[in-house]
Specification:
This protein has helices spanning about 70-80, 80-95, 110-120, 155-165, 195-205, 220-225, 245-255, 275, 280-290, 315-325, 330-335, 340-345; strands at about 1-10, 20-25, 30-35, 45, 50-55, 55-60, 100-105, 130, 170-175, 210-215, 230-235, 260-265, 295-300, 360-365, 380-385, 385. It is of the alpha/beta class. Strands 1, 2, 3, 4, 5, 14, 15 and 16 form an 8-stranded mixed β-sheet that branches. A 5-stranded parallel β-sheet has the order 9-10-11-12-13. Strands 6-7-8 form a 3-stranded parallel β-sheet. The longest helix has 17 residues, at about 80-95. It starts with a strand and ends with a strand.
Length: about 400
């Protein structure tokens, strides 16, 4: 048995910290969390000192196959599977070193993240728990078409969902609008009709899989709501020249209880593209309106898509949840722990420090409830009870 000792503990949910905390671990699971130094006879005690323990972070939207270079698409479309897997292994190690112990890969090539998921299952110190979507479903020539998930008709979309399920994915990703990473597509235009999205959702839910929908355009967001998706990724309400937040649509998202995955976190000093930079203030105001409307919000990174988005960038998004979205620090921390665990359907074992949960634990110097930037000062990372950093 392993006993971790720390000055403070955030359990992933409660606003009150546990002081003088002890976490007992056996067989990769947490067996007890309590105050005080009492430990079972024979336990290995690790005194971590003046740190805060919290659940390992969950990034519910990244791309391990994108290499965070200035042109990640070129690399992905020319590299062999072995070359891509080597880069994905490194990306996974980078994420884990930052305390990100679970990731949801929302777009790869050839189901490579499924292969990596199985590989890492035998060595928890080599990377996070991976949940994967495989190649995102998109229209012919649509956003991220080069990943191989093109499908146009309702019948083709349903067949694509079934094929993904047969490959063992954890979630279905579908592109409801164009995107900034694919020339020839447009973020302000939808790609699928409500009927086509609904066909994907119905087939996925029949197979027991949640659906994450990439949607920037207001009409694409409306189509996603009508289709009863599980999460809307980005949800930027982007138009040709700005942001149109559509109060009626915000209310509809809230009423439906759909989770919005906010794309946050960027390497300090990174200059956003002009098209995005011009919208930052409006996007911040939009996020605040969604929060006030009661929409469930999680913090994700979209890591891999450029130099400002390395695979360890998620912790930088937490201060942005506070400063730009207006969340309390507790809600910002929940947005990278317990809330994405619930969305990803792993909340019975991830996202909290409690008996029965996986011993995925991050130790940071300082107190992230008073200073979210403390997440950047990593003291230790444990995955399934094994020290990984």
């Amino acid at each position: 048995m392993l006993a971790l000792r720390a000055a403070r503990l955030f359990d992933g949910d409660n606003a009150s910290l546990i002081s003088d905390a002890t976490v007992l671990i056996a067989g990769g699971r947490i067996t007890a969390v309590h105050t005080g130094a009492i430990t079972p006879d024979g336990a290995e005690v690790v005194e971590l000192g003046d740190v805060t323990l919290l659940p390992g972070l969950i990034d519910a939207h990244l791309h391990l196959a994108f290499d965070a270079s200035p042109d990640p698409v070129a690399r992905l479309t020319t590299a062999s599977d072995d070359e891509l897997l080597a880069g994905m292994r490194q990306a996974a190690r980078t994420a884990l070193a930052a305390g990100i112990t679970t990731v949801r890969d929302l777009g790869d090539r050839g189901y490579l993240a499924v292969r990596l998921r199985e590989e890492l299952a035998t060595d928890p110190t080599a990377g996070p728990q991976i949940l994967t979507a495989g190649p995102p479903i998109t229209t012919t020539g649509g956003h991220c078409w080069y990943l191989g998930g093109q499908a146009d008709s309702i019948q083709d979309i349903q067949a694509a969902v079934r094929a993904h399920a047969e490959h063992g994915v954890d979630v279905i990703k579908i592109m409801a609008s164009g995107g900034e990473l694919t020339p020839g597509t447009h973020s302000h235009k939808p790609q699928y009709s409500p009927a086509e999205l609904r066909a994907a959702v119905d087939e996925a839910h029949r197979l027991g899989l949640p659906v994450a929908v990439h949607a920037h355009a207001p009409d694409a967001i409306a189509n996603a709501v009508a289709a009863r998706v599980d999460s809307i990724e980005h949800c930027s309400f982007m138009t040709t020249d700005g942001i149109d937040d559509r109060p009626d649509l915000i209310e509809a998202i809230a009423t439906a209880g759909i989770t919005v995955s906010l794309t946050l976190g960027i390497r300090p000093g990174t200059v956003p593209p002009p098209r995005l930079a011009a919208r930052l203030a409006a996007l911040s105001a939009l996020s605040q309106r969604m929060r006030l409307a009661g929409i469930p919000l999680i913090c994700t990174s979209d890591a891999g898509i450029g130099p400002g988005k390395p695979h360890d960038i998620l912790p930088h998004g937490v201060p942005m949840m506070v400063n730009r979205v207006g969340c309390s620090t507790v809600d910002a921390l929940r947005a990278v722990t317990s809330l994405p665990a619930r969305l990803c359907r792993v909340d019975d074992r991830k996202g909290r420090l409690a008996p029965g949960f996986d011993a995925d634990i991050l130790a940071v110097v300082g107190n992230p409830l008073t200073d979210p930037a403390a997440l950047l000062d990593v003291q230790a990372v444990y995955r399934n009870g094994h020290r990984a950093h």
